[in-house]
Amino acid sequence: MTALFHADPAVLVLEDGTRHVGHAYGARGTTLGEVVFATGMTGYQETLTDPSYAGQIVLQTAPHIGNTGMNGEDTESRRIWVSGYIVRDPSRIVSNWRADESLDDALESDGVVGISGIDTRAVTRHIRSAGSMRGGVFSGEAAALAEDEQLRLVRGAPEMAGLNLSAAVSVATAEVTPATSERIGNLAVLDLGVKQATIVNLAARGFDVHVLPQDVTIDDIRAIDPVAVFYSNGPGDPAASGDHVELLRSVLDDGLPFFGICFGNQLLGRALGLGTYKLPFGHRGINQPVLDKTTGRVEITAHNHGFAVEAPLEGEFDSPNGYGRVEVSHVGLNDSVVEGLRALDIPAFSVQYHPEAAAGPHDANYLFDRFRDLVLATRAATPTDHVPESPASEPPDRAESGHEADDSGHGDTN
């Protein structure tokens, strides 16, 4: 483990010229991305390995990070995805019987440049006022670059608005996780940055989960004879994902039941004919309050999104693209952002947050049951449906993707 008492210098530079000097953490070098803050006090391993954070430099608002280290069971994908990492007070030791390595070592192994020892509260307050912005972390020799050169590099980085990152995080070939309860049928999951806990939850509801590359066609989806389609979470701007929207319209035209989460919620909105927009600083963390308008229940939920759907919060409205009546099903209680959509005339719904909730909370886990029930109800209404054959007993090698089958339901231990 790197000696934190004698770390190399590092500096965080924001595109408006704001600078914060601290200590190197993780790999040394230069990293660029959108600087965002995550408010969860636990679950940093799940945050770091969530593909939705690709292209972002993540700041943890909780001051003390790393005390439980990193282990081989709680990862949500094949690697750490954040572009950079910002913490105030990294733990000097690892104290957990499940730990395989320190967080510092894991960051260094995956080449993630970080910074510690800065006033993370000040950075958070600045972003809340000015909005998320491009930034860079410079450590080791890069910390000695001239200030104007560092700022030039930051301002030359791509903005998140207009960015499509799906190809960077998706699997390259289709992969299958068999159902772990009474089987319903094949589920087509478009991998836009799916998390392992999502796959586990879907398999537990009776689906043979086919995780498909983000560039599949509607014919590829039809070829597995699915009982439903699922769009995962993922990074990027939904306005830059026109192909995924058109694919979803074909899914809806086929009458297949659909469930989307996070990025999938935004893409359902666009498929229905709604607009999306960029939030000032987004929602990230595992403590976001959301109202389920159907039940009147307030849920504490896990979020990671910088874009949202434009839709009227009250009442029903007609889909501009001709899919019948739609309503906003969930609303964020901090800022009244659309957090869920439900189509009333076709079998489709979505939420803007993460019901798999690794590393918690589990208030929204019922949504997987709601999806299963929707699929069963749709099948019951169409008697000619049949359950397609189960995939081979031995699923394809999953080593490349890191979406290893696991029914442990991990995700809330650190």
From TrEMBL:
Positions of region (Disordered): 381-414
Listed EC numbers: 6.3.5.5
Residue ranges of domain Carbamoyl-phosphate synthase small subunit N-terminal in the record: 8-138
Residues the record lists as binding L-glutamine: 52, 234, 236, 263, 266, 304, 306-307
Domain of life: Bacteria
Top EC class for this record: ligase
Transmembrane segment boundaries: none
Compositionally skewed regions (Basic and acidic residues) per UniProt: 395-414
Entry keyword Ligase: yes
UniProt xrefs under NCBIfam families: CPSaseIIsmall, PRK12838.1
Protein name: Carbamoyl phosphate synthase small chain
Species for this entry: Microbacterium pumilum
Biological classification of the source: Bacteria, Bacillati, Actinomycetota, Actinomycetes, Micrococcales
Gene: carA
